[in-house]
Amino acid sequence: MDLTSITAVVTGGCSGLGYATARALREAGANVALFDLNAAAGESRTVELGADNTLYCQVDVCDEQQVAQAIEQVKSRFGHIRLCVNCAGIAPASRILNRDNQPAPLAGFQQAIDINLVGSFNVARLVAQAMAEQATTDADGERGLIVNTASVAGYDGQIGQCAYAASKGGIIAMTLPMARDLAALGIRVNTIAPGIMATPMLLAMPEHVQDALAGNVPYPKRLGLPEEFAALVLHMAGNRYLNGETIRLDGALRMPPK
Ligand SMILES: NC(=O)c1ccc[n+]([C@@H]2O[C@H](COP(=O)([O-])OP(=O)(O)OC[C@H]3O[C@@H](n4cnc5c(N)ncnc54)[C@H](O)[C@@H]3O)[C@@H](O)[C@H]2O)c1
């Protein structure tokens, strides 16, 4: 995929892993569309990334109509969508029973599944429809690439992570069937399962907590960088034989119970 001539949709593109990916894509010459709830950040990120090649759309990834309208906006502004990177997500924590043996509110579990899993599927299905209508770009007949973001919690969820782990496990599980569904159209699907990454979410924690988290990582003994996530997205875009796969990006970390 020639990044100098493509347009990419990045959900959650106003912060953390999504923003780092949008920046790397812009540096590689791509147009980017940021689908994110945060309108204030959308405005400033658009300026930072260059308003001529950046479109911010205020979108809740769970909302069918908002996503469909935003995709139309991207198509009319840039003409096509070759890459979609799903980074929008939340990371709630709640034990199934609290200290008083009261059950976790069901709404919290449902919200994590809605935003992380249903939201990723919603954007993927509507972007795939747009990609299916586009011309192929190479001898292999490629039309596009969808990259979803899971988490190592999708494999080894910690205490309090039932909802988050289930949402991310769902993303890992749907990667292969989604790639199989879209294979005949020349649309690839891959997933990245990051470990502990230095995004605003993590950097807001006290330093001793960050140090403790980094201490569990075998090598390199530090938090992962958003730029390292972005580099893997760019590799996935360039490597056409990579399809239907989830790649852990975690410094060999296996999460302990807590
Ligand atoms: N940071 C980590 O250590 C880490 C590790 C593993 C997986 N992840 C996953 O990576 C993804 C990005 O995480 P991050 O650390 O960059 O988080 P972040 O909080 O920095 O960014 C998330 C972005 O998603 C947006 N967002 C949230 N809900 C949305 C919705 N319903 N619709 C549209 N936009 C929405 C937010 O406004 C925000 O800009 C998440 O899916 C997260 O679960 C992060």
From TrEMBL:
<protein>
    <submittedName>
        <fullName>SDR family oxidoreductase</fullName>
    </submittedName>
</protein>
<dbReference type="Pfam" id="PF00106">
    <property type="entry name" value="adh_short"/>
</dbReference>
<dbReference type="InterPro" id="IPR036291">
    <property type="entry name" value="NAD(P)-bd_dom_sf"/>
</dbReference>
<keyword id="KW-0560">Oxidoreductase</keyword>
<dbReference type="InterPro" id="IPR020904">
    <property type="entry name" value="Sc_DH/Rdtase_CS"/>
</dbReference>
<dbReference type="GO" id="GO:0016491">
    <property type="term" value="F:oxidoreductase activity"/>
</dbReference>
<comment type="similarity">
    <text>Belongs to the short-chain dehydrogenases/reductases (SDR) family.</text>
</comment>
<dbReference type="InterPro" id="IPR002347">
    <property type="entry name" value="SDR_fam"/>
</dbReference>
